[in-house]
Amino acid sequence: MFTTDRLLLRGFKDKDLDDLLAMRNDPRVQRGATLEPIVPSPEAYKETLKGLAERSTIWFTVVLKESGEFMGQCSIKVTEPQKNRDALFAISLMPMFWGNGYGTEATTFTVGYAFKALGIQRVSLTVLEGNAGALSLYKKVGFKVEGRKRRANWVEGNWEDSISMGVLDEEWAAIHRKSETSKVDFCVC
Q1: Which of 53, 61, 167, 187 is the most exposed place for a label (fewest CB within 10 A)?
Q2: What is the pLDDT of residues 67-83, one digit of tens each?
Q3: pTM for the structure as a whole
Q4: Is 48 helix (H, G, I), strand (E, B) or coil?
Q5: Where does the source fall among the domains of life (predicted)?
Q6: β-strands 158-168, 122-128: how paired?
Q7: Domain limits at 123?
Q8: Under 8 Å CB-to-CB from 93, ≥6 apart: which residues?
Q9: Do 73 and 24 contact (CB within 8 A), yes or no?
Q10: CATH, residue 127
Q11: Is 20 among the domain residues?
């Protein structure tokens, strides 16, 4: 388990499945996290979520340090071929935690950890253009727009693009000179 100023970042536990399902069933989260309009049957989707967690190189369940409350998840998945040291980043937080810097804190730690601990040389992500908060967060921490898939998602009566973003290890280091892990407590809990 890792701690940042306000967060606990820990591994996946089966008890997280109900919270993950509730988060993914929130239409505001679905809008930014998936192209699908609805979450399928709860039990089937729990298995999908469990599989995502187990196949991730890093999976953190994000918990509010102060209260122990479930906040969401973030993950890193090293892509094939592994020799390229490229990874995909994903994050989803419960809407009640949006706009308070928690996403920035979790993203900064997780991406920084991937570069330092895993020797990743680039981290990529995909975000829908309608997700203004996520786009702003990713740009703020150092991700750059690398491409755009036009009209990738039909939502609320309109088409929107899917945006590919990435950050390289040396770009990240230049922006985040101070070691994130030096500010982090490691906990054997």
Answers
A1: 187
A2: 999 999 999 999 998 89
A3: 0.88
A4: helix
A5: Eukaryota
A6: antiparallel
A7: 2-184
A8: 23, 29, 62, 71, 72, 102, 103, 106
A9: no
A10: 3.40.630.30
A11: yes
